[in-house]
Amino acid sequence: MTTAAAPLAALQSDLKNKVAIVTGASRGIGRAIAIKFASLGANVVVNYAGNKSAAEEVVASIHALGAQAIAVQADVSNEQDATRLINETLAHFKKIDVLVNNAGVFLGNPVHAETTEQYRKIMAINVDGTFFVTRAAVPHIQEHGTIINLSSVVTKSPFPGVSVYTLSKGAVEGFTRALAVELAPRNIRVNTISPGFTDSDMLRSGGDALAKQGVEASLFKRLGSPEDIAEAAAFYAVPRSGAWVTGANLLSNGGAGGFSV
Ligand code: NDP
Prior knowledge:
By secondary structure, the chain is of the alpha/beta class. The protein has a single domain (15-248), classed as NAD(P)-binding Rossmann-like Domain (Rossmann fold). It has helices spanning 5-11, 28-39, 52-64, 79-93, 116-137, 163-183, 201-204, 207-217, 226-237, 239-242; strands at 19-22, 43-48, 69-73, 96-101, 141-150, 189-195, 249-252. The protein has a 7-stranded parallel β-sheet, sandwiched between helices. The longest helix is centred in the middle third of the chain and has 22 residues, at 116-137. The protein binds NADPH dihydro-nicotinamide-adenine-dinucleotide phosphate. The site of NADPH dihydro-nicotinamide-adenine-dinucleotide phosphate has 33 residues, from helix 2, strand 2, helix 5 and helix 7.
């Protein structure tokens, strides 16, 4: 007998039995992606750098949805930590289907005022971190699995003070396209999401002026929410919607800073 609940149950099992790692999942966009994936049936590794209580809150939210989750502290910019993140995932869940390289840092200065220390921090987390975690994960990602990397609309539409951040995200986009080719023989898809101005601690660290700039830049006159970006991640991760998409860069930006063409 068909019940009204049946179609909903089917919708919510799109990622059933899949194992997803989301880096930087204690807050903001990563948190929303982790919870979205769990709502679709995935078991999730909630990576964080230092904010243990926030990560544990995300794990509790996932348990409340009926999915499994563990929190794993690992600084993605540290090679040993990145390898341990993958090893702890395999020890607990035995496999990896989805990797989201979301952990990132935004620090903005005009290029002439950028310190070497700050440059190295941005590159270490945004670029080295993406590489270290991906390198450790790739041998273990299941056939038909997927990698999702977080870039930013600044690579299309920069504004003053974001040159080094843009340098880091441009590297992420190129890495995505090259990996899409490299991993295609294993039926692994690799894609980028480029959020626009999204309401998170990162954005708020830029003060009211940055938030106002984000509202004005959007064609819909609001900031994106982390949940908006999580829907884009779900599109890629769910085999039914994402199966024929690789090497792509989806601008999830409310039209702020250009279009996905
Ligand atoms: P937030 O600053 O709100 O959250 C950052 C997350 O990354 C936290 O969970 C933090 O963990 C984690 N993190 C930071 N450094 C490390 C590290 N070295 N190792 C592991 N985890 C780390 O960021 P957003 O949610 O706003 O951004 C997420 C991604 O989206 C980033 O890649 C960012 O560049 C990108 N993006 C964001 C935009 C925006 O407007 N918000 C726009 C475009 C792109 P902890 O809590 O432990 O500190």
